[in-house]
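Summary for the steering committee. One of the milestones for this cycle was to obtain a three-dimensional model of the protein with magnesium ion bound, which we needed before selecting residues for the alanine scan. The sequence and ligand used are listed below.
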Amino acid sequence: MFQQKCNRRDCLKTLTLSASAMAIPPIIQAAAGSRKPNIVLIFTDDQGYADLGLYGARGFTTPHLDQMGREGIRFTDFHVAQPVCGASRAALLTGCYPNRIGMLGAPSHNSNHGISDGEMTIAEMLKQHDYAAAIFGKWHLGHHPPFLPTRHGFDEYFGLPYSNDMWPFHPENPGGYPPLPLIEGETVIQENPDQAKLTTWYTERAVDFIERNQDKPFFLYVAHSMPHVPLFVSRKFKGKSEQGMYGDVIMEIDWSVGQILAAVKQCGLDNDTLVIFTSDNGPWLSYGDHAGCALPLREGKGTTWDGGQRVPCIMRWPGKIPAGAVCDEPAMTIDILPTLAELADCRLPDHVIDGKSIWPLMAGAPNAETLHDALYFYWNDNLEAVRSGRWKLHFPHKYRTLAGKPGGVGGVPAKYEQAETGIALYDMKTDIGEQTNLAERYPDIVNCLAERGKRFDEQLKQTKRQAGKIHP
Ligand code: MG
C-alpha cells in the first residue's frame, strides 16, 4: 500500500512540486552580461542507446565521446520527440512536438512541405544576439528552397537535404529516388556524392567554422548523416572496429567529435562553449549487422518503446556543467531550445512551445527535477504513450517488430512484422526494458496518466500549427 501511495505521488508530480528546480543556479546569473556561450550541437542519425562507450557499447570504442562525457554530464533518461529522422529534427530545432508544427515522418524528394516560416528555430532565436550559425550535415525539414536552413536562421549550410538512403541505390526501392543532392548554401554542388567522405567533410567544415568565428558567439549544428544506412566510412576507419562496418562508422564519428573539441580548445573557447551530443532516434533494427543497439531497451527506431526514443546524450561545458555528473531525470530534445534561450538570454517564440529549460539538470543543481508533468510519445499524430516520473503508460497501438527474428545482413534489411499492444503500464525505474505490464496492479496510475494524456492531446490538437507548403 505504501508503495502504491508513493508511486501515485510520483505519478502526480506537478509543476508546483517541481518549483524548486526553477531556481536558476547562480552560475548563470554570474554569466549574465558576459560573453554569450557558443553552442555546438552534434546530432547523429539512428545511433542507439547502447552505441557509445559510456552507455555500454561493445565491439568498438568511443574514447573522445567517453572523455567528453566524463568531463561533463551524461543523461540516462533522455528522449527524442518522435522516433524518426525528420520529425525528430523538427522537434530539436523548434522546441515543439513535431505534430504541433505539422512536421511528421521523414520528408523525401517528393514531399511538398517543410518547416513553416512561422516557426522559430534555435538558429533564428540565437540571431537575436547576432550569433554566427551553421549546419553541416542532414537537414530534413524540407528540401525546397523556402525550407532550407539558409531561410531558417543559418548563415551556412553544407550537407544532404534528407536521408542518405533516399537515392537510386536504395536496397528495397532501387531506382525509386532521383540522385541524392549535396547542397552548399542553396545550390546543389554534387549528385550522389561519395558518402565515404561525408563524415570527414562535415568535420572539416565544423573545425573551419569554429576557427573563423572564434571572436563572436556561434551556433554550430553538426547533423551527421551516419550511422543511418547505407553505411559508409572513410578509408582511415575501415576495419578499425571488431564489430564491423557499424562500429567503424561510430568510431569515425567519435574521431569527428575529438576534432571539434580540439578546435574549441585550441581557439581558447573551452569555458565559453556548451557542446551537446545526442542522436535523432534509436537503431533501425531490421538492418541487423548495419544497425546499432538500444539494449536493454525495447525495440528501436519507428516505435514509441524506449528503444526508439531514448538516446545517449552527453553535454560538456567546463566550469558550468560539473564533470562526471549523471542525470537520471527524464528530458527530451524539445527542452534544448528553451534551455539555450535561458543561457543566451534570448526571447522565446510568441507561440506555444512544448519544451522546458533543463539548465538546473545540466548544472547539477541539488534535487533538480524535470519541469514537465509528463512527456508525450507520439507516432505521427497519434499519442501512443505518456511518461511521468517512473511510470510509462502505453495506449493500445500497433508497432513494428522483428519478433525475435534476426535482422538483415550487409545493408539489406529483414522484414518487420506488425504487432499490437493493449493498455500497458511499465515502471521505468525497475523495468527499463518495458517487459512487465503493471496496468492491472495500479489502475489509479493508469487512469491518472490516461487522463493526463487525453487532456494534453486535446489541447495540442486545438493549438497545433501547419507546416509550410509548396504548391507546384
Ligand atoms: Mg534517424
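Key point for the committee: The two ends are 62 Å apart (CA to CA).
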